[in-house]
Design brief:
Blueprint lengths: L13 H9 L5 E8 L5 E7 L8 E5 L10 H9 L3 E5 L16 H14 L5 E6 L2 H12 L4 E7 L18 H22 L10 H12 L3 H13 L3 H5 L5 E6 L11 H7 L4 E5 L6 H4 L1 H13 L1
Parallel strand pairs: 3-4, 3-5, 5-6, 6-7, 7-8
Antiparallel strand pairs: 1-2, 2-4
Helix pairs in contact: 1-2, 2-11, 3-4, 5-7
Length: 302
Amino acid sequence: MDRRTFFTTSAFAATALAPAVATAGQPAAPPRRVTTRDGVQLFVRDWRPDGPPRATLLFLAGWTLPSDFWGVQMADLVQRGFRCVAYDRRGHGQSSDPGGGYDYAQLSEDLAAVIDGLDLNGVTLVAHSMAGGEAARYLARRGQARIAGLVLIGTTTPFRLHADDNPTGLPPAAIEGLRRRLLLDFPGWIDENAAAFFVADTPPGTVEWGKRLMLAVSRQAMLDCIRASIVTDFRPDLRAIKVPTLVVHGDRDASAPLAVTGRASAALIPGARLVVYEGAPHGLPLTHAARLNDELTAFAAA
């Protein structure tokens, strides 16, 4: 297996966006919690513009990362008139660590709990990395009545396990070997694999900040989510998506190679549009934040 991680962070390009953020003056709703059917408390951020929002975006972070990951996108886009919502997946950030429920059936139900709990309608889902599967499974199981659009960024869909009809997928032994390494030395594995998820001039402080975010995850959540993201087949889910979909992927993504994930996912979703960022790694929301924010603005406001 490729030794590179699903590492994703968000803060690079903050200096480029700092003037807009510093002059914000926009009120944000206080953080709140949404309770799932099995009693898990999900920590939710709900940032709103002064006036009526142009649209609502719900951000879903990737493997091991909390809602803090989306800070650059949310702080900028709320100034552009969008309501920006994000939450910490169970076992991540400030949400409960329930000791289970890290399969995509439950994770998609957690997403439904946030959407229903905040009574969101006409929302654009913005999902990075493994969160693409949560969004796809939600749309397949819960329908698309509340969803205006979908953005998949560096997605790990559609299917990465070896099978008769997926011969290039990863064998089960490789997955368990990876999980064993992560169990025994997660910090060391992050250190070895972090560099490929940034560009050359990423500030060292940003890299260290991202590592700290990842290391705060529940060890069980980290292990179960990595397995679920590889063994779950999202091909039927993607074929069933009917909402406008934008797939954004970097051509230097080592964790989710473009041909295997982004391009394959876009081919399965009816009418999906694929945008490839030249030179972008898996941490695209971080390394290409300004361009991505413009892309999200145009898509969500259309």
